[in-house]
Specification:
The chain is an alpha/beta fold. The chain is 30% helix and 17% strand. It starts with a helix and ends with a helix. It is found in: Golgi apparatus membrane; Membrane.
Length: 615
């Protein structure tokens, strides 16, 4: 009897455990799918869910239905169901950078080598971990202060991070003053102002009037480990444009501050991959206490700078190794001096805490080195302009036959180089006449854009602009007279015309618009998308994802100019309400094919939660 009773109890116990397991499983499926929220919501998924946070002025999705949205252009109306609203990410994602998200690295347990900065390189989320929600502004967000005032102060509410002000209080990076954060112009090495430091570098190089511009010969600069980009900010008055570069590291928001100030900047790191710029792009590279180990991996990081410098280009290096007398700094200085000597760099000037090296004008020195000297020359089949996802190599990039014969880059001084056909134009089979026609075409197009924008835009309305498909950079060239700068983006799979853009004295980067861009939310005032949507359709990527990404990087009250085919324009129009965008103007392309110009403005909206927090 006891045995039979125990058996019955065991059966009942097993049945109870199964029921509990099934119940818990159902709870997990139900709550897990809905509470994953912003931590795991699929950016590229077609299923859109409304989150708990609602935005003011938007259409409430009261029926709780999910919407399926198509990314195909030109479908019948009945087949293309568009969401009334996009879900809103919760406030902790107000500074989300999808491909530079440390939380993603932890969640996916990526095995990265921290010693070579792999964790600061791009790692984009797979489709199931992408966000398909609108990034909310922080509580109390205000329309940014206009340039040039923004160089010196920004609203604290827009970037509510003051740790750098405390951490760098003795170096004059930034100071909190009431509702604003003020930038006195200091840096780790130049506490008393970047302007004086820049003049010192020019004086060391014997440039006339202590002007680093050197009569237009120095135009593009790479500032590595730039902090809040005060060095780049004070170069602008000398007609020099710097690509201020820093990772999303312990000084997390330094690039966000730079862009909020209206200074050209980009999130990137000297790690394992080439920087997204073509060879021979910069006249000068700069590192002021940038905490980079230049000797690691056979000098691979210095060799990356060498790839990026033009013939005769300079590397200005301000660091303890250049002047300190302790044993470790002396060792680093000796080894670094030996390395740059083997790279054929020479000391152009050295004073106090700063040394300036100069790269050779020709290949002659490379050819005269002893056989087997390291670093070696790069292989003949290595393309120094291939950069998207390409690993760095510890080798010297020799000059082209043209540069060898010209004993330099052959570029006109600024500003003449903006409109002078550059020598590397021939790499694409483009003639000077084609270049000049492209320049003139875009001059007319930009003039037409500004006429369409005129009711909404004034001289100081926009500062940070992006040309999402820049081609030869003529959109940016047409804006020279305006107080703006342009991030020229060249697709990673098209003609690598970015080197022509740099040769014109402009700046930019390579990118794949199937992925998120390396910038913070709310950093650009105007986006120009010339056939970008048509291009990603051909690649099989989601146009809906692209709209969300454009919304992420666009400032509230900012503008989008789309120049594309009619089906693309019709597609975008269906999403205006969900994105909180409004149409500004539509125009034909004036006998230039079947492109349509569509101009949009992003509204300033806030979540109910952020409004409560700001009260």
């Amino acid at each position: 009897m006891r045995g039979r009773s125990d058996g019955g109890q065991k059966k009942r116990l097993i049945a109870s455990l199964c029921a509990v397991a099934i119940f818990l499983g159902l709870l997990y499926v139900y709550y897990g799918s809905s509470s994953r929220g912003a931590a795991d919501l699929g950016y590229g998924s077609k299923s859109l869910r409304k989150l708990g946070s609602s935005y003011l002025g938007g259409d409430d999705d009261t029926d709780g239905k999910q919407y399926e949205s198509s990314t195909k252009f030109g479908q019948d109306e009945g087949e293309d169901i568009v969401p009334k609203t996009f879900p809103v990410c919760d406030d902790r994602h107000s500074e989300l950078i999808p491909c530079l998200d440390r939380h993603l690295i932890y969640q996916m347990r990526l095995k990265l080598d921290l010693s070579v900065m792999e964790h600061y390189e791009r790692h984009c989320p797979p489709p199931e971990r992408r966000y398909n929600c609108l990034i909310p502004p922080p509580p109390g967000y205000k329309v940014p202060i206009k340039w040039p005032q923004s160089r010196d102060e920004v609203w604290k509410a827009n970037i509510p991070h003051t740790h750098l002000a405390h951490e760098k209080s003795d170096q004059n990076w930034m100071v909190v003053q009431g509702e604003k954060i003020v930038f006195p112009g200091g840096g780790t090495h130049f506490h008393y102002g970047a302007d004086k430091y820049i003049a010192l570098i020019a004086n060391m190089l014997n440039f006339s009037h202590n002007n680093l511009n050197n009569e237009g010969r120095i135009r593009t600069v790479l500032d590595v480990g730039c902090g809040v980009a005060s060095f780049g900010a004070y170069l602008l008055s000398s007609d020099i444009i710097a690509m201020s570069l820093a990772p999303n590291d312990v000084h997390q928001n330094q690039i966000q501050f730079a862009l909020e100030r209206g200074i050209p900047a980009y999130l990137g790191v000297l790690g394992t991959k080439r920087l997204p710029y073509p060879s021979r792009s910069f006249e000068l590279a700069h590192c002021s206490r940038c905490r980079i180990d230049w000797l690691q991996r056979d000098g691979i990081l210095l060799l990356e700078l060498d790839r990026l410098l033009r013939p005769g280009g300079y590397f200005a290096y301000s660091s303890p190794e250049a002047y300190a007398q302790d044993e470790e700094d002396l060792r680093i200085w000796r080894e670094m001096s030996a390395l740059v000597g083997r790279m054929c760099w020479r000391i152009a000037a050295k004073r106090n805490q700063t040394v300036i090296w100069q790269k050779p004008l020709t290949n002659d020195c490379y050819m005269e080195r002893e056989p087997g000297t390291n670093p070696p020359l790069c292989r003949s089949d290595d393309d120094p302009d291939a950069v998207w996802g390409v690993p760095m190599e510890a080798c010297i990039t020799p000059y082209s036959d043209h540069d060898q014969k010209a004993k330099g880059s052959g570029l006109a001084p600024w500003p003449a180089r903006l409109t002078a056909p550059p020598p590397r134009l021939a790499d694409f089979g483009y003639s000077s006449e084609m270049f000049e026609k492209d320049t003139e075409t875009w001059r007319h197009r930009v003039e037409s854009y500004w006429n369409l924008l005129s009711p909404k835009i004034e001289d100081d309305t926009s500062r940070n602009l992006m040309d999402m498909k820049a081609n030869l950079g003529s959109f940016a060239a047409a804006l020279k007279s305006k107080n703006v700068w342009v991030m020229n983006v060249v697709p990673e799979d098209g003609p690598n015309t970015l080197k022509v853009i740099y040769d014109r004295g402009l700046i930019g980067t390579t990118h794949n618009w199937c992925e998120a861009f390396s910038t913070y939310p709310r950093t650009y005032d105007l986006l120009h998308a010339w056939t970008v949507f048509s291009d990603i359709k051909k690649k099989g990527c989601s146009a809906e994802d692209l709209l969300l990404e454009m919304d992420r990087i666009l400032r509230p009250s900012g503008f989008v100019i789309i120049r594309d085919k009619q089906p693309v324009i019709d597609f975008v129009k269906k999403y205006l309400s969900a994105l909180h965008w409004e149409a500004v103007a539509t125009a034909d392309s004036d006998n230039e094919g079947d492109d349509i110009v569509f101009i949009i403005q992003k509204k300033l909206w806030r979540t109910s939660e952020s409004l409560r927090n700001s009260e």
